Amino acid sequence: MRHRITAVGILAICFACVPALRAADDTQQKLQTAIDKGLAYLKTQQLPDGGWDHPTDPPAVTALVLKAFMLEPGYTADQPFLKKGFDHLLSYQKPEGGIFRDTIANYNTAIAISALASSKKGEYQPAVDKALAFLRKLQWTDAIDQLPDRTPVKKDDPRYGGFGYGGKARPDGSNLQFAIDALHDAGVKPDDPAYKAAIEFASRLQNRSESNDQPWAGNDGGFIYTDVDGGSSAAGSFTDPDGQKRFRSYGTMTYAGLKSMMYAGLSKDDPRVKAAWGWITKNWTFDEIPGLKMGENKTSNSETGLFYYCHTAARALSAYGEPVVTDSQGKKHDWRIELAARLIAKQGADGSWTGEKRWMESNPLIATPLALLALEEAKADLKAHPAAP
Length: 389
Description:
The chain has one domain: Alpha/alpha barrel (Glycosyltransferase), CATH 1.50.10. 49% of the residues lie in helices and 3% in strands. The protein is built from twelve helices and four strands, in the order H-H-H-H-H-H-H-E-E-H-H-H-E-E-H-H. It has helices at residues 2-44, 60-70, 80-90, 105-118, 125-138, 173-185, 193-203, 251-263, 271-282, 306-320, 335-346, 364-384, and strands spanning 237-239, 245-247, 324-326, 332-334. The strands form two sheets. It has a two-stranded antiparallel ribbon. A two-stranded antiparallel ribbon has the order 3-4. Strand 3 (324-326) and strand 4 form a beta hairpin. Helix 6 (173-185) runs parallel beside helix 8 and helix 11 runs antiparallel to helix 12. Residues 10-17 and 295-299 have low confidence and may be disordered.
């Protein structure tokens, strides 16, 4: 009798998993079709010089496209059109190691590192090492080896551990996440000093007063854009009943903060990670950027930066390792399936994606690789964990 009950129980569990397995298989097929169409579109957009960045574009455009190809099986860095792309990207590398044209040194160098690392080509390792050395000098720390126009900052300085656009530019959560992505993608271990300093800066972007010493910090667990120069958040600010100015958290920076902390070695049990995850579950959605239409920004387009948001969320959710998210109402969401549905619905007939003008997402050579990278994260996670538990 015991064996019969056990068998019946096992069969019940198997049948319960069938819908999830079917949904995963269906999503995998749709993902592959969308990815293939997107990459086919990008292939037609390569310029004669091998890159995808036009004269007014940053080199990171080419780096994003190259990484989108590298994450898809069937493409290798040895293929002539991709090798030409990597050669073009490396043509921007400066003697000190940075990979950029004239401005936005951190963004471009960091994204280039991620692309080069994704190639898995040993011949690019010296270029990656030089770029990493340059990236480290862009971080605001107390190290003596800084950029020529910079001075070291102490640990209690709000800039400490952050990354800005380059030079003396103030640091922010967006520059931070790309720099941390680069370190992670290049295989830098979590005990590296750059990660340790980055945690200090990330903590000062979080609305968690127990771990954030800035006067504006609230306690919803989400993240803002920057705490430097008075602070800033795309979700705006408000004054609490005590007259204290507070900054509202929003989705893109909260996922960026969560991911940066996890790549830097914090575990799910860390109170800061728990608080960030709590904000995400309370504000779960891919329909818009959560928090962006709050307060004085309620007339803003909630899809502004949608592809950047989806790309950041996909990497963060994959790093967190929970395929199914339970929101504050107790509803379960398979993030891979919901993300895929949202992005596939936005894909154009030619395979490209385009978005809002702000933050350059009206450029299909930026929106398309960001969408593809998000879909590739979802596809890889579905392959590793095909059925929702």
